[in-house]
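Progress against Task 2.4 (sequence-to-structure conversion) is shown through the following example record, which the project officer requested during the mid-term review.
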Amino acid sequence: MGAAASNESDFVGDDQEERRNMNMEGEEAEEGAGRAVTGYGAITRSPNEERELLLPDNLAADRAQASEGPLPVPLKSMFLAETMGTFLLVQLGTAANAVNLYILHSSGGDHADGYGGGSSHHSGKHHLSHKSSLYLNRSMSEFNEEVASSNSSIITAVSSIPTTTALIWGGALAIAMLTSAALSGGHVNPSVSFSFALVRPAEFRLQSKLAAYWMAQVLGAALGAMVTLLLFHAAIASFEQDYHLERGFDASLMSAAAFNDYYSLHSTRLITNNIHAGCIEAFGAGVLSFALFVLTHPKIPIAGTVVPILLGLVYGMLVYSLGPLTGGSFNPARELGPRLVTWLVGGWGWRVSFQAVWPYIVGPLFGGPIGAFLADHFLLSIM
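Structure tokens generated for the chain above:
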């Protein structure tokens, strides 16, 4: 009887030990499965951490990011985002300019926004053909003085800013900001980046980001202009043939005007010199930065996705109101990128491509930070 009891006790002990071994193996298997899924390694998890493993990967990552703060974006991703955003801005905008200049005003028909005309446009075209052969080597101001009085159609085509063109530029800015804001903040403008670096240095470090942003913005603008040149090369050639314009001479500013802004083509009587044009560009950039810094300030409760749309409206209004004076750039990259393309690829040459470029570079870089400073340290500081 004692022997039997002893054997039964040994059997029960063996059975319990076997169950403990099986439980330990099961726990190790579960732990191994956890490591295979999460990649965390052998760690002790709390019940909350175990529940996190049951979440889909994207939800778990979102919850972890929300608790730890936003993950830093690599500078390479910021560079690509700024390049793509500025590409969209310049490509869509210069394409609108190209349609207005090369197609609508070369077709001989009525312009959709009331600019240009049928018979007068055609007779003007013939007159300019005669004039351009005589004045190709003369200065642009002399060319305008001789031609503008007798050929109002092409001067109007170059200098006018139709409502639809202004709206397209505004919409292009909104799309550019929406597509790049998540990674780079959607600056797409060296003036805006410079303003952030000076006025909000905690959000945008001058030393580590500014140069990369500027290079990305100029690169994106150049690529956008390149695509427009490829798409409209036949229309440009037809326009130049109709008006007997030869690239490289001063008169060819008219065919390059879809890519570059030349205040001499917009209003030679109202814009007196480079300083005057630069002040207009500075004012436009200042208004744009002022609106941006107000809309993105923590004291202003507005959804982030609404900011690009409102900025696009502001930009479109600025292009419409100030565009007839200088062209309405307010963006150094929007000028430098296309001018590099017309110089190096388009065949217009350095002289034509970079004529009167300084107001469009210095003006916005000066006016943008002033508008940002007024927004953050004057208007919003008293709220």
